[in-house]
Amino acid sequence: MKVRTADNVATVFFWLAALTIIAILASLIGYVLYHGAKEIDLDFLTKPAQNLRAGGGVGPQLFNSFYILVLSMSVTVPIGLLAGIYLAEYAKRGFVTGMVRLCIEALTSLPSIVVGLFGLLVFVNFTGWGYSLMSGALALTVINLPLMVRISEEAVRSVPGELKEGSLALGATRWQTVIRVLIPVALPALITGVIITAGRVFGEAAALLYTAGISSPPLNFSNWDITSPASPLNPFRPAATLAVHIWKINSEALIPDVRRVADGSAAVLILVVITFNILARWVGRIIHGKMTASGR
Amino acid sequence: MKWKNEILGKWTSFLCAGLVIVITLSIVSFIGIKGLSTFINTGISPVDVLFSTDWIPDRPDAEGGPALGILPFFVGSIVVSLLAVSLSAPLSIMAAFFINEIAPAWGKKMLQPAIELLAGIPSVVYGWLGLSILVPLIRNAFGGLGFSLLAGALVLAVMIMPTIVSVSVDTIRALPGSYKEAAFALGSTRWQAIRTVLLPAALPGILTGIVLGLSRAFGEALAVQMVIGNVREIPNSLFKPATTLTSGITMDMGYTVMGSLWNNALWTMALLLLLMSFVFIILIRLIGKKGLA
C-alpha cells in the first residue's frame, strides 16, 4: 500500500514538472507576442531606427538579419556538406578523422562570444574589413559549421546501404554515387537541417557585437550598387542585426521608446524562429513526399 | 574523366573536413596568444590576475598602477551557472522521464515541440524577458535593484533546460527495454523502476546533459549581461548584482583600446572561457568512459 502511494505521489510530481515547463514556455511566448504584436505594423518593419527620438522602426536591422544569414549560409552549407560527406563516405578510422571529430566537439562547445572575439581578431582586424556584414557572416559560419557537418554526415549515413551498393555495383565511382544517389536521397534531411541551423543563428547576437558591429549606417534601398557604402547589398558595411539591436537599445540607446521597439523586435525574432521551426518540418516532409511519390 | 572527378571530389571534401581542424586550431592560437599578452613582458604575474579581486584597470601609476584581478568575474560565472544548473536539472530530468515513461501520446506531442521551441528562442529575447519580467519582480519582492545573481541564474536555468531535457530523453530512450520489463516483472511500481533501475542506468547520459547545460550557461553572454547588474564584486547574496566573464567582455571590449592593459585583461578572460569549455569537454569524455565500464 505504501509503495502504491509513493508511486502515485511520484506520478503527480512528474506531471507537475511537465506542466511547469509547458507553463514557462506558454507564458514566455505569450508575453512576447502579447506585448510585441501590437507594435508590429508595416511602418515598424520598414522604417529606419531612430537614435534619439521615438517612433523608430527596425527595417534595416531586419534586412541585415536576413542578409547576414544568407551570406553565412552560402559559406556554411557547401563546406559543411562536403565535410559531412567526407566523414560519412571517405574517412577511415585514424588520427585525422579523430582530430576532425574532436575539433567539431570543441567548436560546438565554444561560447559564441569567444567566436565573436576570434572574428574580431581575424575577420575584422587582420583582413582589414572592419566591422562588416562579411565578418559577422563568417563568425556565424564558425558557430554553425560543426552542426552543419554533423547534420550532413547523419543525413548521408542514413541513406539505405542497398542504394549505395547498387550504384557502386553498376560501376559508378564513389563520388558519382555521392552526387547521383546519396545527396538526392538525403535531400529532405539536409534541407530540414539547413533550416534548423539557419533558425539557430538568426537570433545570434553575442558573436556579432564585435564582428558585424552594433551600428547601422543609413541605407538607401534604391541603391543596388554593391560597392557603395549606402547600398544595402554591400557586404563590407557595418550592420546591426535585429538581435543585436535589441541588446543595443537596452544597454546604450537614448531613445525614449526602448520598451516599444524591444517588444516589437523580440516578437519579430520569435515569430521568425517559429516560422523556421514549422518550415523545417513541413519542407522536409513535402520534398520527401514528392521524391518518393508517397505521402500526399 | 570519371576518375578525375572522383579524386577531385574526395580531396575537396577532405579539405573541407580539414578546414574544421584549421579553424579550431587558429581559434585556440589567436585567443591563446592574445590572452597571454597580459603576462608577457609586462611583469604582471598570473597569480595577481587570476586570484585577485581587485579590478581597477584604470588606476594611474601614481596610485600603484592598474589592478587586473579577474576573480570576481570568474567566481560570478561559476556561481551563476551552478545555480542555474541546480535549478534546472531536477525539473529537466523529471520532464525527460515524463516524456519517456509517463506521458500519454498527446503529452509527448505537447512537451517535445515545446522544448524545441524553448531551445530556439534567441538569447537576447531571454535577456529582454528577464529584464522586463524578472528584474521588476525581484525588485518588488526582495528590494534592491532587481538586477541580481538570482535574475541571471533564473534566465540561464530556462535557457539550458532544453539541453538537459533532450540529452536525458535520448539516453533514457536508448536504455534496453529489458531493464524496465525485468523491474516490472519483479513487482516494482513505475516509480520504483524509475528510481532503482532506469535512473542509475541513465545516470552517465543525464550527467553529460547536465555538464552540457553547465557549459552553455557558463558561456552565455548577453542574456546574463542584461540582468545580472554588472557590478564587479563577488556577491554575498542572491539578490545582489554580480558580473561574469562574458558580461565583463561584452561591457568593456568596445570601449578599451586594443593592446592596452585593460583590453588585454579582457582577452585573458576570453582565454579562460575557452579553457573552461575544454574542461567541460574533458569532463564529458570522462563521464562517457565511466558509463561504458
How do the strands and helices of this protein lay out in sequence?
The complex is a heterodimer of chains A (296) and B (293).
Chain A: H1 2-37, H2 42-46, H3 59-90, H4 95-109, H5 112-126, H6 133-157, H7 161-169, H8 174-202, H9 242-251, H10 258-292
Helix pairs in contact in A: 1-10, 3-6, 3-8, 4-6, 5-6, 6-8, 7-8, 8-10, 9-10
Chain B: H1 2-36, H2 46-50, E1 55-56, E2 67-68, H3 71-102, H4 105-120, H5 123-142, H6 149-174, H7 177-185, H8 190-219, H9 222-227, H10 245-252, H11 261-292
Antiparallel strand pairs in B: 1-2
Helix pairs in contact in B: 1-11, 3-6, 3-8, 3-10, 4-6, 5-6, 6-8, 7-8, 8-11, 10-11
Précis, in short:
The complex is a heterodimer of chains A (296) and B (293). Chain A is mainly α.
**Largest pleated sheet of chain B:** 2 strands, antiparallel
Instruction: Please tell me the overall pLDDT of chain A.
Output: 86
CATH superfamily of the largest domain in chain B: MetI-like
Q: How would you describe the oligomerization state of the chains in this entry? A: heterodimer
Main sheet attributes: strand count, strand direction, barrel closure of chain A: none
Cα end-to-end separation of chain B: 50 Å
What is the highest CATH level, the class of the largest domain in chain B?
Answer: Mainly Alpha
Total helices of chain A: the number is 10
Helix and strand sequence of chain A: HHHHHHHHHH
- Which fold name corresponds to the CATH topology of the largest domain in chain A? MetI-like fold
- Low-pLDDT runs of 5+ residues of chain A are none
Whole-number count of domains of chain A: 2
CATH architecture of the largest domain in chain A: Orthogonal Bundle
Task: Please report the two chains with the greatest interface, counting residues with C-beta closer than 8 angstroms to the partner's C-beta.
Answer: A-B, 89 and 87 residues
Contiguous low-pLDDT stretches of chain B (5 residues minimum) are none
Structural class of chain A: mainly alpha
CATH topology of the largest domain in chain B: MetI-like fold
**What radius of gyration of chain B results from the CA coordinates?**
23 Å
Listing every helix as H and every strand as E from the N terminus to the C terminus, the arrangement of chain B reads HHEEHHHHHHHHH
Per CATH, the class of the largest domain in chain A reads: Mainly Alpha
